[in-house]
Structures are given as C-alpha cells and as structure tokens.
Amino acid sequence: VVVAVIMVGGPTKGTRFRPLSLNTPKPLFPLAGQPMVNHPISACKRIPNLAQIYLIGFYEEREFALFVSSISNELRVPVRYLKEDKPHGSAGGLYNFRDQIMEESPSHIFLLNCDVCCSFPLADLLEAHMSYRGMGTILVIKVSPESANQFGELVADPVTNELLHYTEKPETFVSDRINCGVYIFTPDIFTAIQGVSSQRKDRATLRRVSSFEALQPANRSLPSDFVRLDQDILSPLAGKKQFYVYETTDYWEQIKTPGMSLKCSGLYLAQFRRTSPDLLASGDGTKNAAISGNVYIHPSAKVHPTAKIGPNASISANARIGAGVRLVNCIILDDVEVKENAVVIHAIVGWKSSIGRWSRVQASGDHNTKLGVTILGESVTVEDEVVVINSIVLPNKTMNVSVQEEIIL
Ligand code: GDD
User: What pLDDT score was predicted for residue 332?
Assistant: First the structure.
C-alpha cells in the first residue's frame, strides 16, 4: 500500500496571506469553491492502493476536526490530522509522526506541500520513481530564469534524471528547473532524516565542550529535531544516486499571497472544465444569470438573473448577488452581499462583506504585485457608489469614500 502526507504548516506561517488568514487557516481557504487542501487530497484519492492521507501541521486540532471528518466521509478515504506541538520543519514534521505513517507498512510515501497549485500527476510520479529505484523522486518544472530564485533550484542528469545539485532559493542563478514541493519517497527517508538529526545532536555536544560554535554560527539556532527537507536533506544528498526528478509540463503555481490564490482558483476552475464540468455553473435556462467562462456558484448562493458572471468567478455559500451586478476574476466568500449594479473585477471579497449599489471593487489584475488584486477582509462595508481600486482593506472597515492604491488598516 501507499500513504500520502500533506504538509499544512501553521498560523505563524502564511503571514503573507493576510488579511484572509485572519479568518481561516490558509489550507482551508476556498479555491474554485473547495478548500485549498481538497485539491491535493482529491489527487491522492486517485492513487491505487492508497491506505491513508495524513495532514501534518501546527494549527489547533479543532480548526481541522470538522474538515477532516467531512472530507473522509465524502471521498471515502481516511484523512487524519496530526498536530505538531511546534514547527519541526518540512522533514522534521514528517519524522515526528513516523510511527503513525508506518502503521500501514506502506512501500511508498507521497509528500505534498499544501500551498502549491498543480495537476498533481501522482501516478506518473510513482511510475517514474519505480523506474529510477532511488530513495525519492521530486516533481520539478521549468520556470522563467527571473522567477526561479523564489524556489529550490536544481540540476539533474538529462539521461538518468538523477538529482545532481540542489540549492534552496539561491541568490545567484543556478537553474530554471525548480522543486514543485511534491515528492514520493521510500520509508528510507526516515533514516536520512534521523541521520541529520543525530548529526545535529553530536555537533551540539561538541559545541558545549569546545569553541566550535564560533566557527559554525549558522548552525547555532537550529534545534536537533528541526530538519528542512530542502536544505538539510536534498542539498547534501544530491549527486549520491538517492534522489531523482520527474519533470511536469502541466501548470504549476505556488500560493503564498491572496493575489496568487485568485489566479490558482482560476486554474482549478479550468481543470474542472476538463475533468468534472458538472461542478461548474452553466448559463443555460432563462432564469439563470449570464455566465461566461469558468464559474463556480455554491448551491445556496442567490444570483439575480440579470447579473453577469465570469470568467474565473467563485461564489461561496449564502452569497447574494443583486440585479445588474458584474463579477469578473473574483472570489466572493460566504454570506457576502453584492447590491444592484455593483462591479467586482480582480478582487477577493471577504466573508459577510457588503458591496453597495453602483460601487466598484477592482484592480489591475497583476497577481505578482502586492496591490494588483483588491482584497476586502471579513465584514467590510463598501457604501453605495464608492470605488475601491488596487487596495487591501482589513476586516470590519466601512468604506464611505473612494480609494486607490491604499492599505486600509
Ligand atoms: N507541518 C509543518 N511543520 N509544515 C511545515 C513546516 C513545519 O514545521 N514548515 C513548513 N511547512 C509546510 C508549509 O505549510 C508548506 O506547505 C511546505 O511545508 C513548505 O513550506 P516551507 O518549508 O516554508 O518552504 P517554501 O514553501 O518556501 O518552499 C518550498 O516549497 C517550494 C514549492 O512550493 C521549498 O521546498 C522550495 O524548494 C519549493 O520550490
């Protein structure tokens, strides 16, 4: 059998995701109408012989309890949340729960970052891994040389696909092939992590009895149970015939900011169009709103037949969309009201917010700049005829004058 582990992080991570992470753990923020972590979970569900999915993080148990039980029922795959008492790093977190993960005696363990958006070609990754016969195989993708330094850059042998060199977010350019944060390992990975951890312990002992610390200040602050998969495992083991790469040519993005979540919501809607079009809104029937492109509308949302929605719009539970409203490239969260003739373009509208008549909430739509997508936090009120452009508004604010390029605290 195989098992899958999804790293969900915790509340100290994801600060770039504010103000949306003030209300909901980032892994549960909806993309294309489903919690972010649903997308990798659904991909795992398609792996043959999958026994169990573990979510590892340091969010409070209760924040995931409801989600985990409902998704387990829905997909009929057991999903368990394993809570770390503190962050142990991506490899340390895995190692911490080795006994639970090995309960089913899996031959292979998939490891997925929860904050990446891709097609998760897990069956292809497994097949490639079986042919290489290493300890692990990394999903990689080619990106533009200018953007590569935000990720782990790597070099692989073009013939054997062996990982030859790995550096995490290097300052000078190494390679345009990057680590997608999706892996498959044999259980030997636990021995490798254990190795790093005991090396750290030995060094700590050495430091106590000598002045070794002065020579290695970089190692000082890392406790022995904090192990990063990238810097501490992949870098030192590159070129030792342990790790291999599998390159995808499909879509891939990292979801660190609200702006990127909007882009990724659109990518998942486009995937639904190919794999499960029944999840998307269709514009046929006279009592329905005009739908263009890929749109998700929760069954409990009320959309006026004269509204025009899409492309790339997701409307969550109990939202009310008034007459003559125009929604383009946006995420409308639960219990939002958008009143008559308002326009929302390139924006995320937070839970319980209200957009007044003839108002405009919009942005340039550049996902890579901080104010390229307008974000309204929870319970924001935009009064009638007010225009909010390229701005971020924190929860509970009332906007009674128009703003542009502002962060409203
Ligand atoms: N449970 C747990 N505990 N999860 C963690 C911890 C931890 O201590 N630290 C990080 N994570 C989770 C994050 O929530 C995220 O899903 C994943 O592990 C990786 O986070 P980081 O270690 O902060 O790395 P990153 O996202 O900046 O970069 C990594 O992913 C990129 C792909 O998205 C690196 O592996 C890069 O090389 C890679 O390109």
Answer: 98
ipTM: 0.98
Residue bearing tokens 């995937």: 271
pLDDT in tens, 237-246: 999 999 999 9
Residue 207 CA to residue 213 CA, distance in Å, equals 5
The alpha carbon of 113 and the centre of ligand 1 are apart by a number of angstroms equal to 6
Ligand 1 centre to CA of 112 (Å) is 9
How far, in Å, are 209, 212, 409 from residue 387 at the CA level? 65, 60, 17
Question: Tokens 């949340």 identify what position?
Answer: 81
pLDDT of 306: 96
Per the CB < 8 A criterion, the answer to whether 376 and 360 are in contact is no
Nearest to 123 by CA among 277, 246, 269, 267: 246
Q: Between the ranges 65-74, 363-372, 373-382, where is the mean pLDDT highest?
A: 373-382
Residue nearest to atom 22 of ligand 1 (CA): 90
Nearest to 9 by CA among 121, 77, 92, 103: 92
pTM: 0.94
* Tally of CB atoms within 10 A around 69: 12
Locate 103 and state its tokens. Answer: 């309960």
